[in-house]
Amino acid sequence: MSKAHLLIVDDEPDILELVTITCARMGVGTQRAQTLAEAYHHLEQETFDLCLTDMRLPDGNGIDLVRLIAKQYPNLPVAMLTAYGSMDSAVAAMKAGAFDFVSKPVDLQVLRNLIGAALKLSAPPSSSATPEQPSQALIGDSLPIRETRALIAKLARNQAPVFITGESGTGKELAARLIHLQGPRREHPFVPVNCGAIPADLMESELFGHRKGSFTGAVCDKAGLFQATQGGTLFLDEIADLPLPMQVKLLRAIQQKSVRPVGSETEVEVDVRIISASHRNLDDEVERGNFRRDLYYRIDVIELLMPALRSRPEDIPPLADHILGQIAEASGTPKRYLSDAALCRLAAHPFPGNVRELQNLLERATALTDDVELGPEDLYLPANRPLPARAKPVQAEEIDRQPLGDQLDEIERRAILEALDATHWNRTAAAKQLGMTTRSLRYRLSKLGLS
Ligand SMILES: Nc1ncnc2c1ncn2[C@@H]1O[C@H](COP(=O)(O)OP(=O)(O)OP(=O)(O)O)[C@@H](O)[C@H]1O
């Protein structure tokens, strides 16, 4: 395999020297440019695997070079060298198409990590790379889902923070996982964190870790989720639920690329890509003073909107087929099919809970009938209610014959599903209706396998 080749663009001889030596130790060749004009010339003459450019150059701005590369050499990863603490320039560079940034003075480990990640981006995927498992594919062939798939592939080649929005159950976590699996971090962990599910007083220690004795119960040193993600992707779901003091600490961790465990005097360097998501409108949360504007600006460098299922009804048949296949595999029973009438019925349903609602609905349908073909009456959609007569005995008699724990689970499951249906799958409203906290509802959903 030929030696990887890096273009370094900076007018400071010390930086050119430092990058050249670091690359040489990694077996990477370098070409140097001190101006934009020299950089453009080298780009025309040679092929590179990575470009590293300073922001301020004698004949212009490095962002112009980032834009040109993004347009004319879309397969060439480009990273920006930025002045210490200048996150604004880093964000601007990533919005222009840079895949990452390094702040000056350059930390050698950060530089090595970045070069390593960039070279994986330009290398063809290795045979050991995780192929996309069918259970981790974004099913659907509608225009919005095809566009989403294309954007995910693009975002995978980038290290910029991504903010995923979309209604509950539209596949935000799945999209985050795919960005991770298709990118250079795929061999490192993908760590999903539900910010709404961690008790506020444990959040700092969960995210950043703690030192032994730093609080009652801290019986030994513990690494936090940031450290556990080292090299990989941290998915901060429901980020709007982060308490304000934690938002300040998260902002600091993103800016410094390091965290300080609770009770520790020293910072630990972390190389983590942040993808966050919320079904809430963060603009509104910022206006209400619930979410810090500066953090919003840092995490929302690139936005990905997951389309609602009702906006792409043509995806319902392939999704249903995929889900019925998963149910059959998990239960070891023959695969079920939807009748044409059932598919029509689904196409007319607004799906406030999106794909997760479709999953639950098909699980319920397969649990309550033995027929291989599922008809509209098996779906228990609002127009079918009250539940079809043949389902009622299951509820009344069979539940009675089950062990007490299972009976209670079944009753709880039904009450929760009804509250979710009634509130259009808004978990906060459903929790209120059920008289429990949102956190407790999330716990129950996960316990019952509904999350
Ligand atoms: N296009 C799709 N193809 C296949 N499966 C999908 C698709 N979209 C969503 N799913 C599945 O639907 C379920 C819900 O998706 P996911 O958890 O990613 O949604 P979410 O938007 O993160 O939900 P929430 O806002 O409630 O956290 C998951 O099991 C996911 O795999």
Question: What does this protein structure show overall?
Answer:
The radius of gyration is 25 Å and the shape is globular. Helix content is 45%, strand content 14%. The chain has three domains: 5-122, Rossmann fold; 142-307, Rossmann fold, CATH 3.40.50.300; 310-447, Helicase, Ruva Protein, domain 3 (Orthogonal Bundle). Helix 6 crosses helix 7, helix 17 (404-422) crosses helix 18 and helix 18 (427-434) crosses helix 19 (438-447). The strands form six sheets. The protein has a five-stranded parallel β-sheet, sandwiched between helices. The chain has a five-stranded parallel β-sheet with strand order 9-12-15-8-16. The longest helix is centred in the last third of the chain and has 19 residues, at 404-422. The chain contains 19 helices and 18 strands. Strand 13 and strand 14 form a beta hairpin. Bound molecules: adenosine-5'-triphosphate. Adenosine-5'-triphosphate (ATP) is lined by residues 138-140, 166, 168-174, 237, 279, 306, 319, 355-356, 359. Adenosine-5'-triphosphate binds at residues 138-140, 166, 168-174, 237, 279, 306, 319, 355-356, 359.
In short:
This protein has helices at residues 13-25, 36-45, 62-72, 87-96, 108-122, 143-156, 172-181, 203-208, 225-228, 244-256, 282-287, 293-299, 316-331, 340-347, 354-368, 392-401, 404-422, 427-434, 438-447; strands spanning 5-9, 29-33, 50-54, 56-57, 60-61, 78-82, 100-103, 162-165, 190-194, 209-210, 222-223, 233-237, 258-259, 268-269, 273-278, 302-305, 337-338, 373-374. The protein has 451 residues and is of the alpha/beta class.
